[in-house]
Specification:
Elements lengths: L8 E4 L4 H9 L4 E3 L17 H11 L8 E12 L2 E3 L5 H11 L3 E11 L4 E12 L4 H11 L13 H6 E5 L2 H5 L3 H8 L4
Helix pairs in contact: 3-4
């Protein structure tokens, strides 16, 4: 339910606490449904299209919705030089990712799929992120203290590394957090 006349039961297909927080801050009531699937994609897909592809794939994991329900799924990718940096498996991989991002610009792309019984829409949003050069100490400190193993590219913009390492973004901060909430709001109108 939403206090501004939106009467669908929203189901957020994500266990991400950041996505849940953004939906709450928009004033939405929702239920959470964890969608388990392998985040794989065909080799022929361009790096810029993977986030939207995965968001759509997650939405398809819930084949049946009841009348009055709206499913929202999302996926975020970090792309540098057309290479996708996923979620690191361990400290060494996180260190490699942050070293790759250090002193460079990269794109954060969040894809979203929204689906009701009658309609389906998907979209993505891209934000350019500029990292200053990080020291080995800063990278090691962040990994040790924040354990960013559940985050694409091994970092969260809202965490310490974002505060001290990101000196500029071009686009939506919320897209980097994992949900382009301004686009969710606009696209909800399709389902009224």
């Amino acid at each position: 339910m939403w206090k501004y006349g939106f009467d669908k039961r929203i189901i957020l297909g994500s266990q991400s606490p950041r996505r849940q927080m953004l939906m709450q801050e928009l004033g939405l009531d929702f239920d959470v449904k964890v969608i388990k699937m392998e985040e794989t994609y065909p080799d022929h897909i361009q790096a810029a299209d993977v986030a939207q592809y995965l968001a759509e794939k997650k939405a398809k994991q819930v084949p049946f919705l009841k009348e009055g329900e709206l499913l929202v799924t999302a996926d975020t990718t970090v792309v540098v030089n057309d290479i996708i940096l996923g979620k690191p498996e361990d400290e060494e991989e996180a260190r490699q990712m942050l070293t790759t991002l250090s002193g460079r610009t990269h794109q954060v792309i969040t894809g979203v799929a929204m689906k009701s019984k009658e309609k389906f829409v998907s979209f993505d949003d891209t934000t350019e992120v500029y990292f200053r050069t990080l020291s080995d100490y800063e990278i090691d400190y962040y990994i040790k203290e924040y354990k960013p193993f559940d985050k694409a590219g091994a970092y969260g913009i809202q965490e310490w590394i974002g505060m001290v390492g990101i000196n500029r973004i071009l686009g939506s901060y919320f897209t980097v957090m994992g949900l382009p909430i301004h686009m969710i709001y606009q696209n909800m109108k399709i389902f009224v």
